[in-house]
Write a sequence for this structure.
């Protein structure tokens, strides 16, 4: 790779950043991200970045606010160190669920985060599977929006599941589920769900045939796992042979792991966009983690060399 390219990482997902560097056959940039005794974040770049093309790999995962502040402070440090271009690489973009006003006097926090990243000095954003695609328009800088679809599909093809039905856990995910169903040559079903409040959902009905079929529940993220486990149990009650789940971002907050363990889900397929916490060990037998490092690495290489990345937007 060109000597003008450097990749740095905050503390949010160092393993993924190293995986990207391994794909590109280059070292991870040397930076110290530490904390003062009062909780303030301190960043110190330990190598020259003047005139270089910089990519900062930092998912805005738990602790979300700290991860975002690390990204902003690192971006500012790189800008003041005269980096030629700074690209924020967010495998997982936090606050994406707050993309519109759902009630009076509510913020649009996803737009605020986009403004902060731009104001800090980022000149480009590379992200993956945004919860709401329109967030790309919140930025006034170029956004490359990748999908983990090729990575997940490759694994699913290897499973060679027969009588497969792809199930969307809610109406909002139908487009994603339909695209998967088309490529897997599977049928489509939808879970009719009514949400009574944040992180609270109730399965109402299954639209489509799941009886005696292998069901693939598909979502972009799993947070508390309430929606996905309720949907899995409802599908199982409707006569599905096997229920597996595929998602890009495994947040797994609260009682998510316990819910998955106690549910009808036999396997959860996810990516390493977010590092899994210690609770993951309690559910390890059900988890299959796929790496998106090669996909992100290829995108970084093409952006750096000014090649087209459109073939990666699958």
């Amino acid at each position: 790779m060109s000597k003008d390219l450097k990749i740095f990482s905050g503390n949010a997902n160092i393993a993924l950043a190293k995986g990207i560097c391994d794909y590109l056959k280059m070292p991870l940039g040397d930076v110290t991200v530490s904390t003062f005794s009062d909780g303030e974040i301190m960043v110190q770049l330990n190598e020259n970045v003047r005139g270089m093309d910089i990519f900062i790999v930092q998912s805005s995962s738990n602790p979300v606010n700290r991860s975002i502040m690390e990204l902003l402070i690192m971006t500012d440090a790189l800008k003041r160190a005269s980096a030629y271009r700074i690209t924020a690489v967010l495998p997982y973009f936090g606050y994406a669920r707050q993309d519109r006003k759902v009630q009076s006097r509510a913020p649009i926090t996803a737009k605020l985060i986009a403004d902060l990243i731009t104001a800090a000095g980022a000149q480009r954003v590379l992200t993956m599977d945004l919860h709401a695609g329109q967030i790309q328009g919140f930025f006034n800088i170029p956004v490359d929006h990748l999908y983990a679809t090729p990575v997940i599909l490759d694994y699913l093809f290897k499973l060679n599941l027969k009588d497969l039905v792809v199930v969307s856990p809610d109406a909002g995910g139908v487009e994603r589920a339909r695209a998967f169903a088309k490529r897997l040559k599977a049928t489509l079903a939808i879970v009719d769900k009514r949400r009574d409040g944040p992180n609270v959902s109730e399965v109402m009905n299954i639209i489509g045939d799941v009886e005696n079929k292998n069901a693939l529940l598909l979502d972009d993220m799993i947070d508390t796992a309430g929606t996905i486990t309720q949907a899995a149990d409802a599908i199982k009650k409707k006569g599905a042979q096997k229920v597996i789940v595929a998602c890009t971002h495994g947040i797994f907050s609260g009682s998510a792991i316990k819910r998955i363990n106690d549910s009808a889900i036999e396997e959860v397929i996810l990516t390493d966009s977010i590092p899994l916490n210690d609770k993951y060990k309690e559910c390890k037998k059900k988890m299959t983690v796929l790496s998106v490092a090669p996909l992100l690495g290829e995108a970084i290489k093409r952006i750096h060399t000014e090649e087209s990345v459109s073939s990666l937007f699958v």
Remarks:
- The two ends are 25 Å apart (CA to CA).
